[in-house]
Specification:
The chain is mainly α and 520 residues long. The protein is 84% helix and 0% strand.
Amino acid sequence: MTREEPTVRNAATLGGGLVVSRFLGLGRDMLLAYVLGGGWAADIFLAAFRIPNFARRLFYEGAMSMPFLPLFNKLCIDKGREAAFSFGRAVMFRLLILTLVLALLCKYASSSIALLLTPGFAAETGLLAQAGSLMEITFFYLPILALATLLACMALAFEHYIAISIAPACLNLCIIFAGVYAYLEGYDGYAAAKIFCYGVLAGGALQFLAQLPALYKEGFSFFGKASLHSSEAKAFSIQAPQAVFGSASYQLGAVIAMLLASFLGEGNISALYFAERILEFPLALAGIALCTASLNNFSVLALQERKQELSLALRQVLSLGLCFSLPAAFGFAALAEPIMHSLFGYGSFNPDTLERTSRALVFYAPILPAVVLSRPLLAVLNAGGKAFGTAAVALAAMVILVGTSLLLFNFFELEAITISSSASAWASALALMALLRRSGICGRTAGFFPWKSCACYCLFSAVMFAVLLEFMRAADYLRLGQPARMLIGIPLGFAVFFVLCRLFYRQDSDLIRKALLSKE
């Protein structure tokens, strides 16, 4: 077995659970669209859900693991598991206190925060007040998330990938149950949105509980020594803010995009949200799963300064990420309308909202490969001690997003935000590549980037895109409905890309096949 195969197998295990969670998330959003529609009720819930969702995606999907894992693993090796668990309890206690204080402060400043996040609601005093009251509920998801995140980091150290991957599904399940309850009881508008918010809290609690069995098997207990003043706890306190902010470019971009969309009128926040949700499927597999499965390996190779091996490992992960994300981006752009109509075109989701959401997906799709490239680059840079540099790149990306959006508002509306988000993400990915090359963590050459794979997958994706456009024209002639177009178009696009890969560039497809079929 090659050294890349365990990473691919672990990513497949983790990605499988994440894809299940994403399907539940899709069901959650279909229910949300049905119960709340795409107007003000959905806007105020999504405004209240944005910070918890932002925090979950940022902390739970890798940002916290980057500074935590090297310290935790080092203690496991040097001093044993009890010393590592003592460090884990210390970090958990600090984060719990911090997030509880933050949640309480946010509760009493909810109106101001609602105005900050959705300044476009300022003219609608009633909407602003309702958004603030919903935020008072969802802010208390943060301390629950802090505990669940640290448990997930420790589970990752012991390679409990299934426990990590199924926990996000708990959040989606609870929100789905809340939505079903609201629908069956006849709630709508603000009352239904409030029930969805309580579902968020219940989901956080279930997320936390889902991690415990795996860690109890490894000997973890909440009752034990907590090394609050150890050198490792102090080091984490210094490194974590830089690493988290450096990893936050995509998530912060989504928050800023929502803020800008609030100025465009009713339904635009919802359009951005639902377009973003569609991108979560390939991002779960190509971005989160691959990066998380590679994190320990990157950390060890960087610490041992095995630059050539680190460069090869990173190149393989980037190549696999492009293999998934490039065709997905092209496919979403070609099939945006049938996807959105088939998944969300029911209940209170009106035709105008559907058309707006479809356009948002077309211009949002290019962000996907950029984010998938950025995640492993961030992991290697943080493993090499370049957290400050990644934070500077994230700050520059935010400036690009805001500046480009304001410029494009002279010509577009919602498209200005989605185009600017994609441009910002690509600028961030290119800057991270330049920073990594200049740092020398992988050597001074550009050998860590898979140029040949990138060229091949871009070409194959372009051919697939052309085939899908011809299919859409044929579907118009045959008068196929939107669900039929989606159900035929997605496997058709996959088949075209897969055949081209097997005929002309089999490297990654062979690796995936061998890793998944391997028994060891």
